[in-house]
């Protein structure tokens, strides 16, 4: 069967990772969550004191970037690969609202993007991969056979994220989550290096009123059309 590269881009909390995991599992493809990689770098910056609510020492992070080692390890019980930062499982730590508030700022740093994009390109050299993020179809895999761009209203995305955090026991307010979503949208679309844009040949999906099952079925149909050409 023909192996392809599937690039999924879009705004935060649009369910990119959920869709990517579904596709990868169904197709037997490798799944890579690039957002987790940027979150891990943000966590590293937080741990080192390079970033806080009042300060961001970009140069200190750049100087220390060679000491950031990232890799994924598949967890059979969970059914997906977890993020490791310098050989420590940080999957839970990188999903907090605090990391979310810093990740877009860290992702603006060109040196960080260059390091991670290089790794991401290497991961996809043999195709049969589903990767989601902000610049997958435009920068990492501009020649991907299928490019999806996912969107939904900020309010819908904030509600999804709020429900997710509440289910994990995190004490957050909907207003704070909405503010975080809106701030990330602005930073992601206005940064100088690889801003979030829709690739010319991407298929846009607004999933504000789609269930996960409906979305998966629609995208799987697109995949099968390409594979069976």
From TrEMBL:
Its EC number is 2.7.4.25. Keywords: ATP-binding, Cytoplasm, Kinase, Nucleotide-binding, Transferase. Belongs to the cytidylate kinase family. Type 1 subfamily. ATP binds at residues 10-18. The gene is cmk. Residues 6-224 form the Cytidylate kinase domain. It is found in: Cytoplasm. It is an enzyme of class 2 (transferase). InterPro entries: Cytidylate_kin, Cytidylate_kinase_dom, P-loop_NTPase. Its main location: cytoplasm. This is Cytidylate kinase. PANTHER family: CYTIDYLATE KINASE (PTHR21299:SF2), CYTIDYLATE KINASE/PANTOATE-BETA-ALANINE LIGASE (PTHR21299). NCBIfam families: cmk (TIGR00017). The keyword ATP-binding applies. It catalyses: CMP + ATP = CDP + ADP; dCMP + ATP = dCDP + ADP. GO terms for molecular function: kinase activity. Gene3D superfamilies: P-loop containing nucleotide triphosphate hydrolases.
């Amino acid at each position: 069967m023909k192996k392809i590269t599937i690039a999924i881009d879009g705004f935060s909390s649009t369910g990119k990772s959920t869709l990517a995991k579904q596709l990868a599992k169904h197709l037997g493809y490798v799944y890579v969550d690039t957002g987790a990689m940027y979150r891990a770098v943000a966590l590293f910056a937080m741990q080192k004191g390079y970033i806080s609510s009042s300060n961001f020492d970009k140069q200190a992070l750049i100087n220390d970037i060679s000491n950031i080692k990232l890799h994924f390890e598949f967890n059979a019980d969970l059914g997906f690969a977890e993020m490791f930062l310098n050989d420590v499982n940080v999957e839970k730590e990188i999903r907090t609202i605090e990391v979310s508030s810093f990740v877009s700022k860290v992702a603006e740093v060109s040196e960080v993007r260059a390091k991670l994009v290089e790794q991401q390109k290497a991961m996809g050299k043999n195709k049969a991969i589903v990767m989601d993020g902000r610049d997958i179809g435009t920068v990492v895999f501009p020649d991907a056979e299928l490019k999806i761009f996912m969107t939904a209203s900020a309010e819908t995305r904030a509600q999804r994220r709020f429900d997710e955090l509440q289910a994990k026991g995190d004490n957050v307010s909907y207003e704070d989550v909405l503010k975080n979503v809106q701030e990330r949208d602005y930073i992601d679309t206005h940064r100088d290096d690889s801003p979030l844009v829709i690739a010319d040949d991407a298929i846009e999906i607004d999933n504000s009123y789609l269930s996960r099952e409906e979305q998966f079925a629609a995208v799987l149909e697109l995949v099968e059309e390409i594979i069976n050409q």
